[in-house]
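Example is below:
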Amino acid sequence: MPHVPGLRSPYVKVGRLVYFGRMLDKIRLHAAGQLPEADYVANLGKGFDGRCCSFLRVQYDELKARVLKGDLNDEQMLLWAEDRGGRRTDEECEVWCGFMAKRGWRDAGAEVLAKRIKESALEGKPVLTMFDYLDFDEGRDPSGEQPWLKI
């Protein structure tokens, strides 16, 4: 996948959650015509987006519509989602962040991760998780900052 200006790492937190900000970025970038069609658009609202919405107990289409109104920042969008679906406990958020940050490492996602690493010619990189894969594939190197230690 190409580097997409304005698309943040999945490791970056909004409030207590990893990935949420990236999903908001994808919604905004797609609406602005700046999200590469071939690499991202078919999976909007699916995959990790779908998991995030499920965790928050909100429908992707409702979240997307609210994001596109453009009057809330990321933290306010998270509060909106929590108001709609119910606030999660700190422990639930900790489990969410841990699960998402480790997806692909010795779990059911490992096969897909291995396939993606090969397809993107990233075999020589220290890619252990899907988050690592997304960062390396988009031109970021998470190994230097070790963002998983900040989760």
